[in-house]
Amino acid sequence: MLRFEHFLDVRYYETDQMGIVHHSNYIRYFECGRVAMLKDLGLPIENIEEAGVMLPVVSVECRYKVPARLGETLKIISMIDEVPRAKLVIRTEIFNPSGQLVCEGQVVLGFINSLTRRPVRCPDSLVKVFEEHFN
Question: Which domain holds residue 97?
């Protein structure tokens, strides 16, 4: 399993008048975690796209536990359990500064050819990078 931690400050515009993060922002937090993880693996999303592959979101699942609040620094943990072939599944857990689980879920990404927009398998060059981190 690959596991990556990313920290993010809750910003004012992400909250309601009570200082609580609006539910839609957690999906953005998932994206912040996965983009940082891919960059840390040496696979920045812009390089993947320049190589002719795009990663569209196929599905998103999020289970809310406790609210995040203005002024908190959240710990976003992104995890990949297996080397991607036809899809990339990234599980995410978000914790508040007290260590409470704020939410958990997963994002499933597909692979498509940038020009044809047709589904493709995970390119061998990406598989190789993932395999190196799993071994």
Answer: 2-134
